[in-house]
Structure prediction request, 192 residues.
Amino acid sequence: MKHRLLVVGVLLASASCSNPPGWDALPLGTSADFRAILFTDADHGFIAGGGYNITGGLIGRTADGGKTWRFTSNLTDRQRMSVQALHVFDSGRIIAAAGSGEILQTMDGGDLWAVEVRHGRVDSLSSLFFLDNRRGWAAGHGDVLRTDDGGDTWTPLTPEGVDVSYRAPIRAVQFQDERRGWAAGMQASLLR
Prediction:
Protein backbone atom coordinates (compact mmCIF):
# COMPACT_ATOMS: atom_id res chain seq x y z
CA MET A 1 0.00 0.00 0.00
CA LYS A 2 2.82 2.42 0.81
CA HIS A 3 4.33 1.85 -2.63
CA ARG A 4 1.10 2.75 -4.36
CA LEU A 5 0.73 5.96 -2.38
CA LEU A 6 4.32 6.90 -3.11
CA VAL A 7 3.80 6.46 -6.87
CA VAL A 8 0.59 8.51 -6.80
CA GLY A 9 2.38 11.20 -4.80
CA VAL A 10 5.20 11.36 -7.37
CA LEU A 11 2.72 11.58 -10.23
CA LEU A 12 0.79 14.37 -8.55
CA ALA A 13 3.98 16.25 -7.75
CA SER A 14 5.19 16.04 -11.36
CA ALA A 15 1.78 17.05 -12.71
CA SER A 16 1.74 20.17 -10.59
CA CYS A 17 5.20 21.41 -11.69
CA SER A 18 5.57 24.70 -13.50
CA ASN A 19 4.05 25.20 -16.94
CA PRO A 20 4.98 22.50 -19.45
CA PRO A 21 7.14 23.59 -22.39
CA GLY A 22 5.17 25.09 -25.28
CA TRP A 23 5.51 24.89 -29.03
CA ASP A 24 7.21 27.62 -31.04
CA ALA A 25 5.63 28.33 -34.43
CA LEU A 26 8.27 28.71 -37.14
CA PRO A 27 7.47 30.81 -40.24
CA LEU A 28 8.40 28.77 -43.32
CA GLY A 29 7.29 31.03 -46.17
CA THR A 30 5.11 28.40 -47.84
CA SER A 31 1.44 27.44 -47.83
CA ALA A 32 2.20 23.70 -48.03
CA ASP A 33 0.37 21.05 -46.06
CA PHE A 34 3.10 18.92 -44.50
CA ARG A 35 2.77 15.14 -44.21
CA ALA A 36 6.18 13.94 -43.03
CA ILE A 37 9.06 15.21 -40.90
CA LEU A 38 12.25 13.39 -40.04
CA PHE A 39 15.44 14.44 -38.29
CA THR A 40 18.63 12.41 -38.67
CA ASP A 41 20.35 14.24 -35.80
CA ALA A 42 19.86 17.46 -33.80
CA ASP A 43 20.78 19.68 -36.78
CA HIS A 44 19.74 17.84 -39.96
CA GLY A 45 16.12 17.30 -40.85
CA PHE A 46 13.63 17.01 -43.69
CA ILE A 47 9.97 18.05 -44.02
CA ALA A 48 7.70 17.05 -46.90
CA GLY A 49 4.27 17.86 -48.27
CA GLY A 50 2.61 19.84 -50.99
CA GLY A 51 -0.63 21.58 -51.84
CA TYR A 52 -2.91 22.84 -54.58
CA ASN A 53 -0.62 25.75 -55.41
CA ILE A 54 2.57 23.65 -55.39
CA THR A 55 3.15 21.64 -58.55
CA GLY A 56 5.12 18.45 -57.99
CA GLY A 57 5.21 18.47 -54.18
CA LEU A 58 7.69 20.02 -51.79
CA ILE A 59 10.59 18.81 -49.64
CA GLY A 60 12.44 21.06 -47.24
CA ARG A 61 15.71 20.47 -45.42
CA THR A 62 17.53 22.11 -42.57
CA ALA A 63 21.13 21.89 -41.42
CA ASP A 64 20.81 24.18 -38.39
CA GLY A 65 18.23 22.47 -36.19
CA GLY A 66 15.23 23.97 -37.98
CA LYS A 67 16.19 27.64 -37.76
CA THR A 68 16.28 27.90 -41.55
CA TRP A 69 14.82 25.66 -44.25
CA ARG A 70 15.67 25.25 -47.93
CA PHE A 71 12.83 23.93 -50.09
CA THR A 72 12.79 22.00 -53.35
CA SER A 73 9.53 21.88 -55.29
CA ASN A 74 8.48 20.73 -58.78
CA LEU A 75 9.71 17.23 -57.95
CA THR A 76 7.46 15.91 -60.73
CA ASP A 77 5.19 17.56 -63.27
CA ARG A 78 2.06 16.25 -61.50
CA GLN A 79 -0.23 19.01 -60.27
CA ARG A 80 -1.48 18.86 -56.68
CA MET A 81 1.01 16.12 -55.88
CA SER A 82 2.09 15.88 -52.26
CA VAL A 83 5.01 14.03 -50.73
CA GLN A 84 3.50 11.78 -48.06
CA ALA A 85 6.44 9.83 -46.57
CA LEU A 86 10.23 9.95 -46.37
CA HIS A 87 13.02 7.51 -45.63
CA VAL A 88 16.53 8.88 -45.13
CA PHE A 89 19.38 6.41 -45.64
CA ASP A 90 22.12 9.00 -45.07
CA SER A 91 22.72 12.70 -45.66
CA GLY A 92 22.72 12.20 -49.44
CA ARG A 93 20.30 9.37 -50.19
CA ILE A 94 16.58 9.85 -49.50
CA ILE A 95 13.46 8.07 -50.79
CA ALA A 96 10.07 9.84 -50.92
CA ALA A 97 6.59 8.41 -51.53
CA ALA A 98 4.08 10.68 -53.25
CA GLY A 99 0.34 10.97 -53.19
CA SER A 100 0.45 10.54 -56.97
CA GLY A 101 1.81 6.99 -56.58
CA GLU A 102 5.31 7.96 -57.60
CA ILE A 103 8.47 7.05 -55.70
CA LEU A 104 11.25 9.60 -55.82
CA GLN A 105 14.92 9.25 -54.89
CA THR A 106 17.77 11.68 -54.43
CA MET A 107 21.45 10.89 -54.06
CA ASP A 108 22.62 14.45 -53.38
CA GLY A 109 20.68 15.36 -50.24
CA GLY A 110 17.66 16.75 -52.04
CA ASP A 111 18.80 19.03 -54.87
CA LEU A 112 17.89 16.63 -57.71
CA TRP A 113 15.09 14.05 -57.52
CA ALA A 114 14.43 11.16 -59.92
CA VAL A 115 11.26 9.08 -60.31
CA GLU A 116 12.08 5.41 -59.68
CA VAL A 117 10.91 2.39 -61.67
CA ARG A 118 7.70 1.05 -60.17
CA HIS A 119 5.35 -1.75 -61.19
CA GLY A 120 1.92 -2.55 -59.77
CA ARG A 121 -1.40 -0.81 -59.37
CA VAL A 122 -1.00 2.08 -56.95
CA ASP A 123 -3.03 5.27 -57.19
CA SER A 124 -1.29 6.97 -54.28
CA LEU A 125 1.40 6.24 -51.71
CA SER A 126 1.34 7.36 -48.08
CA SER A 127 3.81 5.14 -46.21
CA LEU A 128 7.37 3.82 -46.50
CA PHE A 129 9.18 1.30 -44.33
CA PHE A 130 12.70 -0.14 -44.69
CA LEU A 131 14.18 -3.05 -42.74
CA ASP A 132 17.68 -2.16 -43.90
CA ASN A 133 19.40 -0.43 -46.84
CA ARG A 134 17.99 -2.94 -49.37
CA ARG A 135 14.58 -4.24 -48.25
CA GLY A 136 11.66 -1.83 -48.12
CA TRP A 137 7.92 -1.43 -48.71
CA ALA A 138 5.65 1.36 -49.91
CA ALA A 139 1.87 1.42 -49.49
CA GLY A 140 -1.10 3.64 -50.16
CA HIS A 141 -4.23 3.16 -52.24
CA GLY A 142 -3.93 -0.06 -54.19
CA ASP A 143 -1.13 -2.57 -53.90
CA VAL A 144 1.75 -2.80 -51.43
CA LEU A 145 5.08 -2.47 -53.25
CA ARG A 146 8.42 -4.03 -52.31
CA THR A 147 12.02 -3.22 -53.16
CA ASP A 148 15.05 -5.47 -52.69
CA ASP A 149 17.57 -3.06 -54.19
CA GLY A 150 17.26 -0.06 -51.89
CA GLY A 151 14.46 1.61 -53.82
CA ASP A 152 15.80 1.54 -57.37
CA THR A 153 12.96 -0.74 -58.52
CA TRP A 154 9.62 -1.64 -56.91
CA THR A 155 7.31 -4.63 -57.50
CA PRO A 156 3.79 -5.40 -56.21
CA LEU A 157 3.17 -8.01 -53.51
CA THR A 158 -0.19 -9.01 -54.99
CA PRO A 159 -0.02 -11.49 -57.91
CA GLU A 160 -0.99 -10.18 -61.35
CA GLY A 161 -4.72 -10.41 -62.01
CA VAL A 162 -5.86 -10.03 -58.38
CA ASP A 163 -8.09 -6.98 -57.90
CA VAL A 164 -6.79 -4.57 -55.23
CA SER A 165 -9.06 -1.62 -56.07
CA TYR A 166 -11.52 -2.62 -53.32
CA ARG A 167 -8.94 -2.16 -50.54
CA ALA A 168 -9.24 0.84 -48.25
CA PRO A 169 -6.24 3.17 -48.56
CA ILE A 170 -3.28 2.12 -46.41
CA ARG A 171 -1.83 4.88 -44.22
CA ALA A 172 0.96 2.97 -42.44
CA VAL A 173 3.04 -0.11 -43.22
CA GLN A 174 5.64 -1.89 -41.08
CA PHE A 175 7.44 -5.21 -41.40
CA GLN A 176 9.01 -7.33 -38.68
CA ASP A 177 11.12 -9.32 -41.15
CA GLU A 178 10.99 -10.17 -44.88
CA ARG A 179 7.75 -12.12 -44.61
CA ARG A 180 5.81 -10.72 -41.62
CA GLY A 181 4.27 -7.29 -42.08
CA TRP A 182 1.37 -5.08 -41.07
CA ALA A 183 -0.64 -2.49 -42.95
CA ALA A 184 -3.18 -0.16 -41.33
CA GLY A 185 -5.47 2.28 -43.04
CA MET A 186 -8.78 3.95 -43.55
CA GLN A 187 -12.15 2.42 -42.69
CA ALA A 188 -10.65 0.48 -39.75
CA SER A 189 -8.57 -1.70 -42.07
CA LEU A 190 -5.74 -3.77 -40.65
CA LEU A 191 -3.89 -6.29 -42.81
CA ARG A 192 -1.05 -8.67 -42.09
About this structure: The first strand starts at residue 33 and ends at 39. The chain has a mean pLDDT of 82. The helical segments are 2-15.
